[in-house]
Amino acid sequence: MPDKKDYYDILGVSRDASNKEIKQAYRNLARKYHPDVNQEDGAEQKFKEINEAYEVLSDSQKRAAYDRLGHAAFNGSFSGAESASYGFPGFDYNFSGFSNPFDIFEEFFGFRSPFTQTRTGSKSRQRAKKAGRDLLQTIKIPFAAAVKGTDYEIAYRRLKPCLACKGSGAANNGKISCPQCQGSGRVQKVNRTFLGQIATISTCPTCHGSGEIIKNPCPKCRGKGRIAAQEKLKIKIPAGVETGHKLRFRQKGDAGENGGLAGDLYIQIKVEPSKIFQRRGPDVYLDLPITFSQAALGDTLEVPVIDPGQPGGIGRKKIKIPAGIDAEAVIKLSGQGMPKLSGTGKGDEYIRIKLQTPKKLSPAEKEIFEKLKKTNSRPKNLWDRFFS
């Protein structure tokens, strides 16, 4: 068995802490880690450790035995006479002696547990609410729609509350109190350990925590409380979306159970690629082929640009190619990219120059290039620079 944690460390108090300090530390930790308040993994185990520590340290005899012998005082390592010499023959652990484990709420926190009954015997516990499932739909839009933004109507199936039974799942109030938990939604189980008897509380397996079972199921939803239905939803797709973006629509998913909130609907966007541009976020890239003469002499060319005002989302713009431009040069057109999702500004367009080398030359073209070859000053290559 792994070493048990020190009880003082569990409560976060010193070994000379007063009873008042121990009780206050327990109160704070029990409120924080109670399974009905804290749903995180490990909270229930932490709550059990806190109660075990408080059970010992809040009792003067048990605390004295623990201070003297540690955990060995309770695990049977000492004989009955030795244990009795410290005034501790053994004990039953049941949430500090409360007849009902949920009375811890009333004793320490000043309000009744939602799982106890009122003095008149009526159930104060409400049916367990459960949130509905989130749904995911994927839609494909053209590149122009991503440039301009668009309105879109989707059709999808979701679970909606049954109108016949108003989501209860029962016909004509056909529900009765759960016989296993007597309407509390929780069941108590007592286990014997080296510390004595430890009571644990868990969700009732019969009613799943609702405190009620259906006697007469609704014929329309067959006791489910929800029915599948076709739904249509008009949505607005903002300009600047790209593949992978998700739009969230709250409470448009499956209806919850027992009055729980509906889940959310997520629309995942897939944008058809452009035949002209390559996209990286709000920026777009365009390869522009030019000839040797255009690279040497310069030129003015018309290139495609992003333009939400045009029907296809693409317009045209004249740009100047400077004389002597390098073969792999990049020209930046600021603010000519995609609209940004923030709604402020646009990305940029980057034009990558691609120098075209002619594959076949006419006799006249060949003669011109021969003349250029003779007149051009040849740049030094690596060998020229090495041997010069």
From TrEMBL:
Location (main, coarse): cytoplasm
Cell location: Cytoplasm
Family annotation (InterPro entries): DnaJ, DnaJ_C, DnaJ_domain, DnaJ_domain_CS, HSP40/DnaJ_pept-bd, HSP_DnaJ_Cys-rich_dom, HSP_DnaJ_Cys-rich_dom_sf, J_dom_sf
Domain of life: Bacteria
Chain positions of CXXCXGXG motif repeats: 162-169, 178-185, 204-211, 218-225
GO BP field: DNA replication; protein refolding; response to heat
Domain J: 6-70
Gene Ontology MF terms: ATP binding; heat shock protein binding; unfolded protein binding; zinc ion binding
Domain free text: The J domain is necessary and sufficient to stimulate DnaK ATPase activity. Zinc center 1 plays an important role in the autonomous, DnaK-independent chaperone activity of DnaJ. Zinc center 2 is essential for interaction with DnaK and for DnaJ activity.
Protein function: Participates actively in the response to hyperosmotic and heat shock by preventing the aggregation of stress-denatured proteins and by disaggregating proteins, also in an autonomous, DnaK-independent fashion. Unfolded proteins bind initially to DnaJ; upon interaction with the DnaJ-bound protein, DnaK hydrolyzes its bound ATP, resulting in the formation of a stable complex. GrpE releases ADP from DnaK; ATP binding to DnaK triggers the release of the substrate protein, thus completing the reaction cycle.
Family named by the database record: Belongs to the DnaJ family.
Record-given protein name: Chaperone protein DnaJ
